[in-house]
Design brief:
heterodimer, A: 416 residues, mainly alpha, two-stranded antiparallel ribbon, 16 helices, 2 strands, B: 285 residues, alpha+beta, Alpha-Beta Plaits, 4-stranded mixed β-sheet, 8 helices
């Protein structure tokens, strides 16, 4: 039915089967849209946020999707600026994942603010001292860059590419992509960093506050570093899931191994920096403000030392080591374990830097505040996941996302 | 227009030994500032209480148990070094909260706030409140709203303004009277006037003739132990909340009881005894 739109020579499932899958995920998406409309029309009383938890599940989701979406800017940087040519075989997918993550982040922000119609005030009445202002500007600009990076891939659709203008536009855009990749890397450095700065500048919150360099707290650099380190892990994870769902090998092993190796070294160096930061914070910053480390990890039913160990050791040191070691990196199961741990680790870090910051009592007579999100918050957080699955399904079906797909599946195609 | 010759620095000192926890300050604040309320106010984490009263205890078992009540308005922080970069002001992305260098008051521009709540995350005192619901009053009660204070809409943050509208009225009166000075009693917050025990004293910390200045005796120099701290009280009975963080609040608290003063900040073991007699630069003279 839609064969004319499918890339030449590529095998795809039947249209009814495809639509059935879209319909199932679409139902979840509609559930999220319903919750989103409730939040917009009835207000944020639909959530379980409160005056202790002004930042909650959504801000975590926002930070998490931006962190894992970091694969787009970092892979682009490696491909176009550092000229690591093998990565051309995964860059399209990295850009699509980045596009999904960043559009989701903007959507979540639009739901999260109390007065969505005033969202533009952040640009109009911008406070240059606020990290959130920097986030808003860089995030919007980078989303525009991602859209530009995504367009050539869309124009390579079999039918669109028949139009000479689109064909040449796509070709020329590919030629100038290095400029956009450099712009994207520059913007990402600042917005990933300023998202880290959002927590690090909170000098009224001893759990979040960090010293730093000039106006940038150390969390600024740690967030950029971790996004560059764990973002490729997410790209690899989604590639693996896509391969599992489609039943096809889509990217050659040498490309996967290369990206995994780069990610491994980035994780390993990041986690050393993170450990140094944690030790300094625990031994200098926190005692200087009159708190003991135990203040932040005891006296409540959720946030214990386990979270620190899980984030840094289990989901930081271990995936780093697994990915820098050749034999473990090239073992599919251990590599998968490492990238899953890595993705969990960076998401856990963002959770800690948002939710735990809100939970810890600061005044000596205050108490821990724990929170469970409402279904509306959960549904609107799942909404971008459903949207991402649909967009990946549609782009995979109709666009030549994986340049090595035909070569890798030629024998299969011939057999069938 | 009155041209103030010297910047004011309005502040408050609350005598915790006089406070009975009656809640008059809270009630008067809500009435004065058109603060809406919910049908069920049992969940205090999402109700609007610009002036919230905390109950403190010394943690000792009966019969040594002692309690104190601590009213907590917005602390109107001056920020690190008292330069006006309050925790909340510095983070607001849309400049919807502002530091008044002429008054020391941290204001909130409701019509500019778009409800990102970053200021709430930044405030360690939980002094900022979000309007989770539309403001609704029982039928007929809206007629008793103050015409001097704009009600806030759903989706924006609000907080104690030190009854700024009263300051504006006092300035208008001074203009009418053709005087340069605003008398101490011409600008008093609603909570101050409502407190039956007279526990709240409000005035200009920069004005030596004001009672608050005489009680607090603010140290104009940075604290030698922590250069971010400015305006530390030289009165051994007076303290501020979370002074060590460098937020530099303009709300001071006073108590004869050492355990109450100790609760103002967090201290490592043995630290309190070393710093309890430190009262700013003067204690090093």
């Amino acid at each position: 039915m839609d064969a004319a739109l499918i890339p030449e020579g590529a095998k795809r499932c039947s249209f009814p089967k495809f639509m059935l899958g879209i319909a199932i995920v679409g139902a979840v998406l509609l559930w999220g849209v319903y919750a989103m409309l409730l939040c917009w029309f009835k207000g944020l009383n639909q959530t379980n946020m409160n005056d202790y938890y002004g930042f909650a599940l959504w801000i975590w989701a926002d930070l998490a999707v931006i962190a894992v979406g970091g694969g787009a800017f970092f892979t682009g940087l490696l491909k176009y600026i550092f000229k690591i040519d093998e990565l051309k075989n995964i860059i399209n997918f990295a850009v699509i994942i980045g596009f999904i993550c960043y559009s989701s982040a903007l959507l979540i922000l639009a739901i999260d603010i109390g007065q969505p119609l005033r969202g533009w005030f952040i640009f109009w009445h911008a406070n240059v001292h606020s990290m959130l202002t920097e986030v808003a500007f860089c995030l919007s600009c980078y989303f525009a860059v991602l859209t530009i990076e995504f367009i050539p891939n869309i124009l390579e659709n079999r039918q669109l590419n028949k139009v000479p203008f689109f064909h040449h536009l796509a070709h020329n855009m590919h030629g100038t992509m290095a400029i956009f990749a450099a712009t994207g890397a520059f913007l990402s450095f600042f917005h990933q960093g300023s998202l880290g700065g959002v927590a690090g500048v909170l000098y009224g919150r001893p759990f979040a506050v960090r010293e730093g360099l000039l106006i940038w707290p150390w969390t600024f650099f740690l967030f950029t570093w971790s996004a560059a380190a764990f973002g490729p892990c997410f790209t690899l994870l989604v590639t693996r899931i896509t391969e599992a769902v489609t039943g096809k090998k889509l990217v050659k092993d040498n490309v996967i191994h290369l990206l995994a190796k780069i990610s491994g070294w980035m994780i390993f160096t990041y986690i050393i920096a993170k450990i140094i930061d944690t030790i300094y914070w625990a031994n200098v910053t926190v005692p200087g403000l009159g708190y003991e480390l135990s203040h932040f990890y005891t006296g409540n039913s959720l946030y214990g030392y386990w979270i620190l160990v899980t984030e840094i050791i289990i989901c930081g040191v271990i995936p780093g080591l697994l990915l820098i070691n050749k034999s473990t990196r090239e073992n599919p199961n251990l590599r998968l374990l490492a990238i899953i741990l890595g993705v969990i680790g960076v998401c856990l870090n963002r959770w800690v830097m948002v939710l735990q910051v809100m939970a810890v009592p600061v005044m000596s007579f205050d108490t821990w505040a724990l929170y469970i999100p409402s279904w509306q918050e959960v549904a609107t957080t799942i909404l971008p996941v459903a949207y991402g699955i649909i967009l990946i399904a549609v782009t995979y079906r109709y666009l030549p996302v994986f340049p090595q797909e035909l070569e890798l599946n030629q024998s299969k195609a011939q057999e069938s | 227009m009155i041209q103030d010759k010297k910047a004011h620095k309005f502040g408050m000192v609350i005598d915790l030994d006089k406070c009975t926890g009656c809640g008059s300050c809270t009630v008067s604040c809500m009435a004065e500032n058109n603060i809406p309320f919910k049908e069920d106010e049992s969940d205090k984490k999402d109700s609007l209480t610009w002036m919230r009263v905390y109950k403190l205890t010394n943690g000792k078992p009966f019969p040594e148990t002692q309690t104190a009540y601590l009213p907590r308005p917005c602390q109107h922080c001056g920020g690190k070094g008292d330069h006006g970069h309050s925790p909340c002001v510095s983070v607001c992305p849309a400049t919807a909260t502002d530091y008044g260098y002429d008054t020391g008051i941290v204001s909130q521009i409701y019509t500019r706030c778009f409800g990102c709540r970053y200021c709430m995350a930044a405030c360690p005192y939980h002094a900022r409140y979000f309007n989770w619901w539309d403001p609704v009053w029982p039928e007929g009660m809206e007629k008793y709203l103050s015409p001097n204070v704009s009600p806030r809409m759903r989706g924006v943050v609000e907080k104690c303004s030190f009854c700024y509208h009263r300051y504006q009225l006092a300035r208008e009166q001074a203009y009418f009277d053709e005087t340069d000075e605003i008398p101490e009693d011409a600008y008093q917050t609603a909570c101050t006037t409502a407190c039956p025990a007279g526990a709240i004293i409000f005035g200009d910390l920069n004005n030596p003739s004001h009672k608050i200045h005489q009680i607090v005796k603010p140290d104009p120099h940075p604290d030698p132990l922590n250069h971010d701290v400015v305006g530390k009280s030289r009165n051994p009975k007076v303290f501020r909340l979370l002074e060590r963080l460098g937020t530099n609040p303009k709300v001071y608290y006073m108590s004869e009881r050492e355990w109450v003063r100790k609760l103002g900040d967090s201290y490592l073991e043995g630290e309190w005894d070393k710093v309890k007699n430190h009262h700013g630069a003067a204690s090093h003279d």
